[in-house]
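Troubleshooting: if your tokenizer reports a length mismatch, compare your output against this known-good record of 376 residues.
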Amino acid sequence: MSIEMIEEGVINHQAETNQNKLSAGHGDYEHHEDYSKKSLMAKWGLLFLYCICSAVGTIGGPLLLRLYFLHGGNRKWLSSGLQTAGFPILVIPLAILYFKRDRTPCSVQFFASPKLLLSSIIIGILLGVNNFMYSYGLSFLPVSTSSILISTQLIFTALFAFIMVRQKFSPYSINSIVVMTLGSVLLGFGKSGDRPEGVSSSQYLLGFILSIGAAALGGFVLPCTEVAYAKASKVMTYPIVLQYQFCMALSATIFCIIGMLVNKDFSAMQREANDYELGATKYYLVLVSSAVVWQVMYIGTLGIIFCTTSLFAGVISAVLLPLTEIAAVIVFHEKFTGEKGMALALGLWGFSSYFYGSYRETKNQTKRPREDDTSK
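Known-good structure output:
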């Protein structure tokens, strides 16, 4: 499925939700029903693609970042900047959309709202702060422990979504949040004695606090992005989402570059590469791979918000926690305890609950036009 087909389907789906009641006539309804099914399939296809991107980044990003710290990397601002420094890859899909603009007129809708641009800059700076807190915390914690703490972001996302976007909670979404939170708490019971070698108690505590802070700030950023989409003066399209991400990542990267300049990270990179345990070549490979993988994650996260809600983006991140745990066990030989197994089961249960609730809501919405039509 090409970008243009996906985008056309999503825009058609957005347009049809704003239509008034269907005109009378059995033939008109059948045409509308086929049209609605096609556009809905395109939307679900795009959402699935975004979920894959989110999974790749959510699982691979922390592993690569921890790999950097484990083998001699120690630059906090550098590791923070890596999480958004891959934004130039967004030029590729934007260029494709631009050069095919004659066949897809909607693809040339570029930033026309200064308010939208300003929001991307502000949220980008918040994202830079969040990335620094996360990187600093991860430098003192195992991937498994850090992931557990970051999973509390779902609670903060639900809270801020309720306050900022008046998020409605169904029994299924409430069950999902409670079950996933219980999974994180359960994992916390088995976290004694996991302090990495060479990390002091005070550093471990600092990493714990910073990770919780990063979860809270991340839970605030997701609803902020949803509000920015909703307040946009024009309909949010796929190209505009990419541009929004580009500006947001650029702002976050500039924020981290300033920190790198103050901390003299650029001058220390060559020395750090020479002393890296895996060699200088693999040092730079880790940096580049980390930047690309993290950017793929942001493509997925912002895309999920574009297609659904910030709460659903938080649910996707939470359900990927146990998978990150398993990946850490395989790559870094961290222990896989019974608590982690239970957390995996609870995470899948919570995700299934939320997904089923969304399916029921979508199914009910598609039935309403027919009920309105038959009631005439």
